[in-house]
Design a protein that fits this description.
Blueprint: H1 2-18, E1 38-41, E2 49-54, E3 61-65, E4 73-78, E5 85-90, E6 98-105, E7 115-119, E8 133-136, E9 143-147, E10 155-159, E11 167-172, E12 180-184, E13 192-199, E14 209-213, E15 217-218, E16 227-230, E17 237-241, E18 249-253, E19 261-266, E20 274-278, E21 286-293, E22 297-298, E23 303-307, E24 321-324, E25 331-335, E26 343-347, E27 357-360, E28 368-372, E29 380-387, E30 397-401, E31 415-418, E32 425-429, E33 437-441, E34 449-454, E35 462-466, E36 474-481, E37 491-495, E38 509-512, E39 519-523, E40 531-535, E41 543-548, E42 556-560, E43 568-575, E44 585-589, E45 603-606, E46 613-617, E47 625-629, E48 637-642, E49 650-654, E50 662-669, E51 679-683, E52 697-700, E53 707-711, E54 719-723, E55 731-736, E56 744-748, E57 756-763, E58 773-777, E59 791-794, E60 801-805, E61 813-817, E62 825-830, E63 838-842, E64 850-857, E65 867-871, E66 885-888, E67 895-900, E68 907-911, E69 919-924, E70 931-936, E71 944-951, E72 961-965, E73 969-970, E74 979-982, E75 989-993, E76 1001-1005, E77 1012-1017, E78 1025-1029, E79 1037-1044, ...
Length: 1343
């Protein structure tokens, strides 16, 4: 009940207040703070400033503004509970004095007015005294700046300018001291000034005080009296310098100024001299140029020192040489009167040439014996030189030697020759010594070596075996070669002829002339091993057979396949062992036996019709052969059969002996007998089938389908043939009556369109054909002839011609002919279902005008008459315009012919003559293209002409246009300044070339006309290449280099000089960068290196600890060594290099300093360009600071880097591409000589699009044919790129141009826009932005 009453009361109260008149009440303002209630403390940067207010109440809100009215709230705060004061902390009010404006807003009241409160500036540090500053500008070591009169904890800053400029370095005064020293890698070679300020704790930086410094000092040049050069031979040369100081660096050059460093050495501690060794200064005298670099000073000028040539060894004396010219073993040369370790060389010529042998005297000896494989059989001269230790090779001394000893001539009485038959012949020579070699020749001099033999130990004779001397008598020539002597002269010795076998007697020969098997010749009264040969002639002729008398036998039988059926003679020879063949003996033989004639009463002939005929013969014997012929003599064998075993008859089956009566001829061949005479046997004619009755024949002459002939009243298996003539003619069709059938239907492809007759015959079983019965048939129906008005002929060129016929019916067939009657069918086409027309495609109806003849064949009707329709001649294509043809006559690759101003589908042909000639190349223009390029394998090395034609679609080939081309271009020789030759030791040398073009071929030769040493091709996208040579040579020399550019002939060869191999050059200090990082590994980066160079870092100048090492990767020129910690304070490391192919260099001292302050985001601005490189601009940096830009806060990729130049406090880092969209970059700084700072994040915006071209700024001139059209665009931004397209999107780029760096207008020339009016679409790309949208620009038709 209480809740209900309360609810009603609440509603009444709401109604009361809602309907009362509205009344506004103003709030009162809060009280403003008084100035004595506010205290402001302005601290230096690093300590927050404070505002202290009293006389306030809990909940009051205090606002601090930067202006009396408006402005911005610097800070605000609320008074805490039970508080009447408030302290507000502000990061920084300002370094200088100023004012703030403070208001209070109490609860339930408006904000008070603002009270102005002034504050003092921050305290400033004391300026350092110039008298307390000392600047030392060293050379070769760190420079220093010393400042005194300070207090502990003071920080000094050193600048390069009195105001602004760059911060060079900073240092902090240590505890319990009042001075500080700052080291710099390099203040400058010349004198200058630095500017120093002080910042004490809790105070602002003081003003800067200038301090001047003098230039660096130069070392004194070495005195020539303190330099000694020793030019040794065969061992290293030396250069010694005295009167120096420990740590002095001596540098040795081969030229007075510039040039390459030849050698370097450092004076050790506690000594005043140094010696440098060289592999080779030179054989002849020369000059070196020597400088000194003392500690803290620059390199001195160079002192020239002349050195003398190397010493030469003494001559070899002839009297001290003994030469032994041996035979069959090595010759020897003995030389005495020498010194230990002397080297003796043996030559065959007085100068030049190469050594044939060499020998070295033992360490404790004075002579040497040299072996020579062969001096020569005759006397001669050798030339000897000597090379003593530390001297050059002596001149050569000529020494003569005698010829070798000759063996004694063979005595002919000691030679025995045996001329065997069938076995090897022998030559035996006696009265000689063991080891003597006997040789037998077929000529007194030269000729062939027939055999050889060596006299065995304990023997005085030797026998030479010769495969064959000859059947007749003759002569051989014999020599001997005794031990340690040359071969004797040859002596002639005669030998007798071989022995002949005995002739066989005719009574010892029996010849058997068999029939049906091999014939034989039997020979008796012979000896074992005798060979019997049987011939068909008394001399020459053919060998019919051969046999050998077996061991223990006196006869042999020769088997011969066939002597002949008649009588005749054979001729027999005998060849006995070790004798030549006998003369031949004639032996006659009789003819073979004849078989008995067959009895005619035993022969039965059956002459069948439609199946094979048979001849049956009785009263025969086993294996007898019966032959049946078609003539009494000669003729053809028409059948044969062999009587089976145990049978007395034979049946011969013959495919056909004839339909009429006739004769056959039968013979018999009995075993081992020749065939009998033939017997004449007569046979009767075959039976004939009945003539067909015409009333039993019905003929259907169809049109467009097969015709049929039906014959009834027949018998099963009767064969019906249909002919087109009463006799002879063509068989039109045939059919066989089925088993149980009485009729046959014959299908015939075509009887004829007109009425006519066929001729029908029947062949019944085992009977010959009946006579032919004539049967008539009617003509086929004819189709309607097409009207000429319904026919259209298109006579194309190069593509198919067409004939279109209308007003037809479905399935009608249209035929096109080349004449009114007969002629050739050119093409045919069938009307499709539901169609009324057809187009006939014809490969070629003719290039000129003419006529075609068109007919129609309707369903089930004959072809209509032909309708004549005329057609016009083919048209010729336009010839190409000569100025539209560009020819490039390449060398080594195909030449090109480019033709423009043509249409898609055009065929371009290139010939070598105005008419006829050879087709050099052809190309078809792409569907949407207006030009084509034809490759020609070889145009020619000199200038000339080609002839170009066009064949457009549907047209004939045009006339040819003559176009001239220039001679082949010759490649430019390489610039010697672009060639670097590195002559390495122990590894291949390299030849590097720059300033080339991609695909250039570089060749290196041994001389101007010498051999090819190496070759290489410049890679795609590159302009440089490096070639490797296995060995250039220990000393310096020349190579010859040529270039062959693509499409050009090889250039001339240019000589390039290379130096001798050398020791690694020490690292230059300027190539070493040390970064002493904090919290991560320190790094040492060394540049100016080559692939595979090895850099080592040590803790001291000599000895010490190896801190780290690294090898330059392939393709790189620098390397970075990571060291866990160099040290938190400044210090030094010592670096050496082992250059690829050289030994380790001397160590170079490299100093490092302590660790950089991160950049401020407000000092960095990023421009994200399109197309152009993006830029990152950093302000507030100092000279030599290195700014790095990354794509991530940690690790990531280094996008770009830049070094702040001298006298600058800003730098721009160029980056090829940040991102097309908005993003962030991460930027660090490495102060000069310090480690890299932490990275700061800086955001950048997305790339922008260029503003589209205004159509009103475009002017188009569409010129007449053969005059280029032009498009002019005005009011451009300088360097803008303008593109012209043929479509609003996609399409083809038809023109392009770039405005100059200060230009606002461009004109684009286009060979041909269009004859008619049209439009182009133009875009612009402003530097640093993307391509704009395309602007449509219209043009009018040509006038």
């Amino acid at each position: 009940m209480k809740k209900s009453l309360l609810g009603i009361l609440s509603i009444l109260m709401i109604v009361f207040f809602v309907f009362q008149p509205y009344t506004a009440y103003a709030l009162s303002a809060s009280a403003a703070p008084s100035s004595d209630e506010v205290t402001i403390t302005n601290n230096v940067i690093g300590t927050a400033d404070s505002i202290y207010i009293t006389g306030v109440m809990t909940g009051d809100i205090v606002n601090v503004y930067n202006a009396a009215t408006g402005g911005k709230i610097i800070c605000k705060a609320t008074v805490g509970a039970n508080k009447t004061d408030l302290t507000i902390k502000i990061a920084q009010i300002g370094a200088l004095k100023g004012s703030v404006y403070i208001s209070v807003m109490s609860k339930g009241m408006t904000e008070s007015s603002r009270t102005k409160m002034d504050y003092d500036s921050e305290p400033v540090s004391n300026t350092p005294l110039s008298s307390g500053i000392t600047v030392t500008n060293n050379s070769g070591k760190a420079d220093t700046i010393y400042v005194s009169g300070l207090i502990p904890g003071d920080a000094i800053k050193i600048y390069n300018k009195a105001t602004g400029g760059g911060l060079l370095g900073t240092a902090t005064v240590g505890a319990n001291t009042t001075d500080v020293t700052k080291s710099f890698t390099q203040l400058g070679v010349a004198g200058g000034s630095v500017y120093i300020s002080v910042k004490s704790k809790g105070m602002l930086e003081s003003d800067r005080v200038g301090a001047d410094f003098s230039a660096e000092n130069y070392s004194s040049a070495p005195s020539d009296s303190n330099i000694t050069i020793t030019n040794n031979s065969g061992k290293p040369d030396t250069v010694n310098l005295s009167g120096l100081n420990p740590g002095d660096i001596v540098k040795i050059y081969t030229v007075a100024v510039s040039g390459n460093l030849f050698g370097v050495a450092t004076v050790p501690s506690n000594t005043t001299e140094v010696t440098k060794s060289f592999t080779q200064l030179g054989i002849t005298s020369g000059t070196l140029y020597i400088s000194v670099t003392s500690l803290g000073m620059h390199e001195s000028t160079r002192t020239p020192i002349v050195f003398s040539a190397e010493n030469q060894s003494n001559l070899v004396l002839v009297k001290n040489v003994t030469i032994t010219n041996n035979t069959g073993k090595v010759d020897t040369i003995y030389v005495d009167g020498l010194s230990p370790k002397d080297k003796v060389n043996v030559y065959t010529v007085a100068s030049g040439g190469t050594t044939v042998a060499t020998g070295t005297v033992a360490a404790s000896g004075f002579d040497v014996t040299i072996n020579v494989s062969q001096l020569g059989k005759t006397s001669g001269t050798v030339y000897l030189s000597v090379t003593s230790s530390g001297t050059l090779e002596s001149d050569r001394t000529g020494v003569t030697y005698n010829g070798e000893l000759q063996s004694t001539l063979v005595d002919s009485s000691n030679i025995l020759i045996t001329n065997n038959v069938g076995t090897a012949d022998t030559v035996t020579v006696s009265d000689f010594a063991a080891g003597d070699v006997i040789k037998v020749y077929d000529a007194l001099t030269g000729g062939n070596l027939l055999g050889t033999a060596t006299v065995a130990a304990m023997n005085t004779a030797a026998t030479a075996s010769i495969s064959r001397l000859g059947t007749s008598a003759g002569t051989v020539y014999v020599s001997v070669t005794s031990t340690n002597k040359i071969e004797s002269s040859r002596i002639a010795t005669s030998y007798a002829a071989e022995g002949q076998s005995n002739t066989i007697g005719v009574n010892n020969i029996i010849v058997s002339n068999n029939s049906g098997k091999a014939d034989t010749v039997y020979a008796a009264t012979l000896a074992a091993g005798d060979v019997v040969n049987v011939y068909d002639n008394a001399s020459g002729g053919t060998l019919l057979g051969t046999a050998t008398v077996a061991a223990g036998s006196t006869s042999a039988t020769v088997s011969i396949a066939q002597l002949g059926t008649g009588s005749g003679s054979v001729y027999v020879s005998i060849t006995s062992t070790n004798k030549i063949k006998s003369s031949r003996t004639q032996s006659t033989y009789a003819a073979e036996g004849s078989s008995t004639i067959v009895d005619i009463s035993n022969i039965v002939v059956t002459n069948n019709a439609g199946q094979p005929d048979t001849v049956q013969v009785g009263r025969l014997s086993d294996n007898e052969i019966i032959n049946v012929y078609d003539a009494a003599r000669g003729g053809n064998l028409i059948g044969t059969a062999t009587v089976a075993k145990y049978s007395s008859e034979a049946t011969i089956t013959i495919a056909q002996i004839g339909s009429q009566a006739g004769d056959i001829y039968v013979s018999r061949t009995s075993t081992n007998k020749i065939e009998s005479a033939r017997v004449d046997v007569k046979y009767a004619a075959e039976g004939q089938s009945s003539l067909v009755d015409a009333i039993n024949v019905s003929i259907t002459n169809n049109s467009g389908m097969e015709d049929t002939v039906k014959v009834t009243g027949l018998s099963a298996n009767d064969i019906v043939n249909i002919y087109d003539l009463a006799k002879g003619g063509n068989l039109l069709g045939t059919a066989t009556v089925a088993s149980g059938g009485t009729d046959a239907i014959i299908s015939i492809p075509q009887l004829g369109t007109t009425a006519g007759s066929v001729y029908v015959l029947v062949t019944s079983t085992n009977k010959s054909q009946s006579d032919r019965a004539k049967v008539d048939y009617s003509a086929e129906p004819t189709s309607n002839t097409p009207a000429a008005s319904s026919i259209v002929v298109a006579n194309n060129a190069g593509i198919t011609d067409t004939v279109k016929v209308t007003g037809l019916s479905a399935t009608d067939i249209v035929n096109v002919y080349d004449s009114a009657t007969g002629g050739t069918l050119l093409g045919t086409e069938t009307i499709a279902s539901y169609a009324t027309s057809a187009t006939v495609s014809i490969n070629q109806i003719g290039t000129g005008s003419g006529s075609v003849y068109v007919s129609v064949i309707s369903t089930s009707k004959l072809e209509s008459g032909r309708t004549q329709v005329g057609f016009i001649a083919e048209s010729k294509s336009h010839s190409p315009v000569a100025k539209n043809v560009v020819i490039v006559n390449n060398a080594g690759i195909a030449g090109t012919v480019t033709v423009s101003g043509i249409s898609g589908g055009d065929i371009i042909n290139v010939y070598n003559a105005a008419v006829g000639g050879t087709l050099l190349g052809t190309a078809t223009v792409g569907t949407y293209d207006t030009e084509a390029t034809i490759s020609v394998t070889q145009l020619g090395s000199v200038a000339g002409d080609v002839y170009v034609s066009t064949t457009s679609t549907g047209k004939l080939e045009s006339d040819r246009t003559v176009v001239s081309y220039a001679a082949k271009l010759v490649s430019s020789a390489p610039d010697v300044a672009n060639i670097t030759v590195v002559n390495n030791a122990t590894i291949p040398g390299t030849v590097a070339l720059i300033g080339l073009q991609p695909n250039d071929v570089v060749n290196i030769y041994s001389s101007a006309t010498g051999t090819l040493l190496a070759t290489a091709t410049v890679p795609a996208g590159s302009r440089a290449v490096t070639l490797t040579l296995t060995q250039l040579g220990i000393s310096g020399g020349n190579i010859y280099v040529s270039v062959k550019s693509t499409g050009k002939a090889e250039s001339a060869r240019i000589p390039v000089t290379y130096n001798a191999e050398s020791k690694s050059d020490a690292l230059a200090k300027g190539d070493i960068t040390l970064v002493n990082n904090s919290g991560k590994s320190d790094t040492i980066n060394v540049t100016g290196l080559s692939s595979k160079d090895i850099v080592k870092a040590y803790s001291s100048a000599t000895g010490g600890t190896l801190l780290g090492t690294a090898t330059v990767a392939s393709g790189d020129s620098d390397v970075t060594i990571s060291i866990s910690q160099l040290g938190t304070i400044a210090g030094s490391v010592y670096l050496s290099v082992i250059r690829y192919g050289d030994t380790e260099s001397a160590r170079t001292q490299a100093d490092y300093v302590s660790e950089s302050i991160s950049l401020l985001v407000g000092n960095v601005s990023i421009v994200n360009n399109a197309v152009l490189a993006d830029t990152v601009t950093v302000n507030g940096v100092t000279a030599n600071d290195i700014v790095n830009v990354y794509d991530a806060a940690g690790n990531g990729n280094l996008l770009g880097s830049a070094v702040v130049s001298n006298n600058n406090n800003s730098v721009i880092v160029t980056i090829p591409q940040l991102n097309t969209n908005a993003g962030s970059a991460y930027i660090s700084v490495a102060n000069f000589g310090k480690g890299e700072s932490s990275r700061i994040k800086v955001n950048y915006t997305a790339e922008q699009d260029s503003t589209a071209v205004f159509a009103g700024n475009v002017s188009i001139v569409n010129s007449k044919v053969n005059t280029p059209d032009t498009i002019t665009v005005n009011n451009l931004i300088p360097s803008s790129l303008v593109k012209v397209y043929d479509a609003s999107t996609g399409g083809n780029l038809i023109g392009i141009a770039t405005a100059s760096s200060n230009g606002t207008q461009i004109t684009i020339t286009i060979s041909q826009l269009n004859l008619a009016s049209g439009s182009v679409y133009i875009s612009v790309t402003i530097p640093g932005k993307n391509e704009s949208s395309r602007t449509k620009a219209d043009y009018v038709a040509e006038n």
